[in-house]
Amino acid sequence: MKLVTFTVGSGEPRVGAMNGDDTRVVDLAAADNQPYFATMLDLIEAGDEAVARAKDVVGSANGSNSHAIADVSLKSPILVPPQIRDFLCFEEHLLNAFAMLRKKKADAEPDPEEALARFEREGAFAPPPIWYDQPLYYKPSRFGVIGNDDDVQWPFFSEAMDYEMEFGAWLGKPGKDVTPEQATDLIFGYSIFNDISARDTQAREMPAGFGPGKGKDFETGQIIGPCIVTADAFDPYNAEMIVRINGEEVSRGHSGKMYWKFEDCIAHVSRAETVYPGEFFASGTVGGGCGLELDSYLEPNDVMELEVTGIGVLRNRIVRSS
Question: Are 249 and 195 within one domain?
Fold first, then answer.
């Protein structure tokens, strides 16, 4: 089942579920005024009972309690998530990014070909060994989250803006010190994630060793949506991950290439720490899934479409004010 947070016109956010062909959204609280249909976090925390009831409501919905998909705006499933953790699960992305950094560094040398060969011999810009030992992550700002069709506001301090093709798992249950096998039971569902990045700012910050700061954190910089596909209806390791910019496909990857699985990430974070319902664990960028890897960055008014088969399409435009 696909669950959404939506608005109609200037109305307040509502919790809904898509019908079988994704053409209509059923307003769950309007159809059945249960307390757990008040917000998406309420529904997630209520667990199996709420999901089962939502399925019943969709199955018996009438037109008065539903809206055509064209008539609603799809928001981030949880407007302000309790927590976001963004991992780096795809080795191909890491290798591609370091290869591009090596090339850029070599291009600045008097003899680029010689410099590139030397960097490769020396192992410069190679993945750090710790990446293969444990999942690595940073915490994006949970207050910068927007949803489908919302505009991304270009931050004034950057000249190199980028998208990142990711998806992520929402937790539905708490847990502490869980194993990867136990972590499967904690996953409620999945959404697409676009981690907008100010690459020039990020490049200046990263050598300090604290990870990304303003290179990632600015309003409208984290995009989640367009829905949550419940875990029983989606295989997270068998999905195509497709990027289109202004309608043209620029990359295509596959979720099955994740080196670290969501279960690994959840188990790692839960060591000596409780994880909670509503937390969002993002995959990191799929191989080829960002402009950094392709040496091609966003321009003002570009429209990004990130598609994960089985979830849908997350569409946004980036705009730059004068």
Answer: yes
